[in-house]
Design goal:
alpha/beta, six-stranded parallel sheet, two-stranded antiparallel sheet, 6 helices, globular, binds flavin mononucleotide
């Protein structure tokens, strides 16, 4: 069973990528995991509004990303929402099938006190529109620069417990849906 993680920004030195790497280490204990970063998305090839056209570089990125049984999106908060590059990526995925009946889990991270609750909820709406099966437990990492250690995870014991629960239970959710 394969799970792909999307680090949902192209910002250099991104916390989303650090959280993605940590999540991979935990999920890897019982599933195959690969990280994709929107820093590697071929943004230059979609400039000019190429909606509906076949763009080789975008197709390659999307096909590789979509070849999994479940997805984990790690989403930072930018101006009360998710990064613009995530919406571009989403708008160039194949319609309608990309996430139809596919399990998806979400983690938010932000410098502020709400831990990217807003962008995660916003993105969940977009996933519902595309008929994804959203895993009900999401983690919202608040004050990420102080609260998260890339090696050991969250410094708060209680929040770390919740994060580990999400990362341990999601593969089981994927497995159950794949068997149905
Ligand atoms: C363009 C931009 C807008 C931001 N807006 C918010 C915000 O609205 N709320 C917040 O809590 N943090 C905000 N931040 C801080 C980020 O949430 C924080 O730095 C986060 O770790 C960024 O994730 P990244 O390192 O993966 O890019 C913003 C950061 C950037 C770059």
């Amino acid at each position: 069973m394969k799970i792909h993680i999307l680090s949902s920004t192209d910002r250099p030195g991104s916390n989303a990528l650090k959280v993605s790497r940590y999540a991979k280490r935990i999920i890897n204990e019982n599933s195959e995991v690969e990280i994709f970063s929107l820093a590697d998305y071929p943004l230059q090839d979609i400039v000019g509004g190429k909606y509906g056209k076949e763009i080789e570089s975008v197709k390659t990125f999307n096909d590789r990303f979509l070849s999994a049984d479940g997805f984990l999106f790690v989403i930072p908060e930018y101006n009360g929402g998710f990064p613009g590059i995530l919406k571009l990526f989403y708008d160039y995925l194949p319609f309608p099938k990309a996430f139809q009946r596919i399990p998806v889990s979400l983690i938010g991270e932000a410098a502020g006190a709400f831990g990217a609750l807003r962008p995660v909820e916003q993105f969940a709406q977009l996933l519902s529109y595309r008929k994804a099966h959203i895993f009900p437990d999401s983690m919202y990492i608040q004050r990420v620069n102080d609260s998260f250690d890339p090696e050991t995870g969250l410094k708060s014991e209680k929040l770390q417990e919740l994060l580990l629960k999400q990362l341990h239970d999601f593969p089981e959710f994927v497995r159950k849906l794949s068997n149905n």
